[in-house]
Amino acid sequence: MPDYQTLLVEKRGRVTLITLNRPQALNALNAQVLDDLLAALAVFDADEGQGCAVLTGSDKAFAAGADIKEMADMGFAAMYGTNHFAGWERFTQTRKPVIAAVAGYALGGGCEVAMMCDFILAADTAKFGQPEIKLGVSPGMGGSQRLTRAVGKAKAMEMVLTGRMMDAAEAERAGLVSRVIPAADLVDEAVKVATAIAAMPPLAVLANKEMVNAAFETNLTQGVQFERRLFNGLFATQDQKEGMAAFVEKRPGNWTGK
Ligand code: CO8
């Protein structure tokens, strides 16, 4: 496994647990974190023994945003010329599911990275926000778009214009997170959910993830058609035959990923 400077990466069965580890900066996302995360996700995606990843931070902070100290002196030419932050979009090209397990602050880029994951499990201590306006800027890693799609215009607009934080209960009510979990149980519960996903037929996992994500990119007719194509395609897999035979024979399925 590569040597990561800003992450702890461990395998728990078929689950890769990735922990952001820059405690001195509340896991602020600098260029090294991006490099490390993209490398870790590439290893995870290519490993046939791994089925689902969990991305988490510390008790105090999932991530307190992009690294302000790294950005502070940058000008337009450096930002625009290097397309700073564009690399983060590669995060979303991970094919297998990635669950965000968020405790403490998920602010700015931290909230944006959590939203790049396939779903968010929140500790009861989680706080989400897009406070960039207070720094004289705006979300720059997709927050204005993904937050608006997740919680709707009213709440997203209020959050980006005021920079206020949303606690875990509000985030669950608004649909930003799938569930709230007591902080002490967060990582274990996330690994449990990830283990359940990693035990599913692998091709069906990829297809299900792809079709839900298509809902953000297509109109309804196109999205339903995309779903139907993938659904039909799954009937070409051995795991479909196995899954339906196992149901009829009242036994667990034995997946081959073929
Ligand atoms: N970047 C760099 N360092 C940070 C960051 C950050 N985002 N957040 C915290 N730190 C550092 C602090 O500077 C401090 O370091 P030091 O001990 O050396 O002074 C250490 O982490 C601990 O932080 P605090 O002492 O501030 O801890 P508190 O418990 O008092 O406060 C908060 C915690 C409320 C989370 C506070 O740290 C805070 O407000 N952080 C900044 C949150 C923020 O504004 N995030 C948005 C950043 S901008 C962003 O993400 C934009 C993404 C896209 C931009 C695209 C531009 C083109």
From TrEMBL:
Family per similarity comment: Belongs to the enoyl-CoA hydratase/isomerase family.
Protein name: enoyl-CoA hydratase
Species of provenance: Hephaestia caeni
Pfam family, one: ECH_1
Catalytic activity entry: a 4-saturated-(3S)-3-hydroxyacyl-CoA = a (3E)-enoyl-CoA + H2O; a (3S)-3-hydroxyacyl-CoA = a (2E)-enoyl-CoA + H2O
PROSITE patterns: ENOYL_COA_HYDRATASE
Keyword Transport attached: no
Keywords for the protein's UniProt record, in alphabetical order: Fatty acid metabolism, Lipid metabolism, Lyase
Top-level taxon in the UniProt lineage: Bacteria
Ranges in coiled-coil conformation: none
EC number: 4.2.1.17
GO molecular function: enoyl-CoA hydratase activity
InterPro entries for this protein: ClpP/crotonase-like_dom_sf, Enoyl-CoA_hyd/isom_CS, Enoyl-CoA_hydra/iso, Enoyl-CoA_hydra_C
GO biological process annotation, one example: fatty acid beta-oxidation
Reported function: Could possibly oxidize fatty acids using specific components.
